[in-house]
Amino acid sequence: MRAAQGFALLLIMWSLAGALYAQEVPAGQMRLSKIEVSGLQRVTEARVVEASGLEVGQQVDVAALDAAAERLLATGLFTKLGYRYRTKGVEAVVTFEVEESKAERNMPVVFDNFVWFTDEELARAVREELPAFDGNAPESSGAVAAVTRALERLLRARKIAGQVDYMPSADMAGGNAKHVFSVKGVSIPICTLQFPGASAIAEKELVGNSTPLLKADYSREFVEGFAEATLKPLYWQRGHLRANFGRPGATIAAANTTAGADHCKGGASVSVPVEEGAAYSWEQAVWAGNAALTAAELDAALGMKTGEIADGLKINKALREVREAYGRKGYIFLSLKPRQEFADETRRVTYGFDIKEGAQFRMGTLAVTGLAAADANRLKEKWTLRAGDVYDASYVDEFLKKNLMTVARPGTLQQIETSVKPDRQKLIVDVTLNFK
After folding, report:
1. Looking at residue 166, which CATH number applies to its domain?
2. Which residues, other chains included, contact 301 with Cβ-Cβ below 8 Å and sequence gap of 6+?
3. What share of the chain is helix, strand, coil (3-state, %, to 5)?
4. Strand residue runs (E) in 91-219
5. Around Cβ 412, how many Cβ atoms within 10 Å?
6. Structural domain span for residue 167
7. 412 shares a domain with 373
8. Residues 348 and 415 in one domain
């Protein structure tokens, strides 16, 4: 390697958080006869070759090999990368020597509101920066920067006056992690909504239940979340327990949209595909792991009858009733996991419930604060859940409903803070009623 060339190249690679070294190649071009990779542990050789952009049979020179090495380092898959070659006449075999980065999550990439481009156009642009891009990208800052550059280039090419914004996304438990890229600084009102695949529920009814969307700027993430939280329950209520909404798509709305020319200038026509699935009726519940309550008691708490529509909302409410039945018997850390078994020939569904009841808790101490001593004692006298009694998780709310007027002052709004503290060692629950 020439010293000056090698030094410059090394500086470029360190700026990408890696290191690259290469050997001198002839000034002329060579025909690439083979590509080899050494040092791989997790990444496949095929993926490295694809990401390099090289193909067997093409003509290569120093610029082509250096560019291929830069592309590989930019993927974030490697902390160090070098190459060597051997020649026979004008034929060349190049070997990339790599040191893989530590295992890193690959996260789906969401193009949230890029309504001016198809998903394929967006993916193709990103592959210019990340050749191995398949809809997912590493969580590294280098990968995020590469996707951002590609999207900014697309916006400039279409003369769209907006800025690329990035926000990582995950659910409350840290799962379902995603890279979310959006365009800021541009208004994209939702002008029209369509739900291809809808028949059991008329498209008009779905649109009518989507008024909040028609008042908002387009966001694929928001539309998807809205359909999941607001529209899917409409199907559950009718027994379509397998209904699913697909990924929303959007295009620039036609100029003659009926939603209003001013409101919809530059706006989006949004399509949300739906797979309704069959409507199911209730067959039965099958309980496992229950001891404190019998199957008959649990069936009664659930309140579902064979042959009725398997209303998903009613089933969810019924499960709360089951939890409350256990809570009244002191089982406050119940684990209840439902699973569905669908019989498509009869359009019936059976729910299996795996129960872990946990320990039974008893009443500990009752404290009343924020009241005059006489009022606090009068309230305690009405508390019939004594220390050592099986704890009833519903008792506090029922007690306050019945007895709050005992200590309420005329013309005042009494605020009460309830503290319920289970002790897992002693298996007791201490209750504090704090009046403010």
Report:
1. 3.10.20.310
2. 293, 318, 321, 322, 324, 325
3. 30, 30, 40
4. 91-100, 106-111, 136-138, 163-169, 178-184, 190-194
5. 7
6. 106-184
7. yes
8. no
* Residue carrying the six token digits 């969580």: 139
Find the mean pLDDT for residues 147-164: 95
- The pLDDT score that the predictor gives to residue 255 is 58
76: left (phi over 0), alpha (psi -120 to 50) or beta: left
Q: How many CA atoms lie within 13 A of 170 on its CB side?
A: 9
* 8 Å CB contact between 191 and 122: no
Q: Tell me: do 270 and 290 sit in the same domain.
A: no
Contact 48, 40 (CB under 8 A): yes
Residue 406, CB-side half-sphere exposure with 13 Å CA sphere? 19
Distance between CA atoms of 227 and 205, rounded to whole angstroms?
13
As a whole number of angstroms, the distance between CA 364 and CA 103 comes to 49
Among the three residues 341, 356, 371, which one is the final residue of a domain in this structure?
356
Per-residue pLDDT tens digits for 219-267: 999 999 999 999 999 999 999 999 999 999 999 987 554 444 455 777 9
Q: How many domains does the chain have?
A: 5
Are 163 and 228 found together in one domain? no
Answer with the one of 248, 275, 302 that is the final residue of a domain.
275
* CATH code, domain carrying 271: 3.10.20
Q: Do 48 and 120 belong to one domain?
A: no
Mean pLDDT, to the nearest integer, of 91-96? 93
339 and 373: one domain? Answer: no
Q: Which residue has the tokens 């605020």?
A: 415
Please tell me whether the overall predicted TM-score, pTM, comes out greater than 0.85 for this model: no
How far, in Å, CA of 231 to CA of 414, rounded?
A: 39
DSSP 71-102: HHHHTTSEEEEEEEEEEETTEEEEEEEEEEPP
CA 326 vs. chain centroid, Å, equals: 31
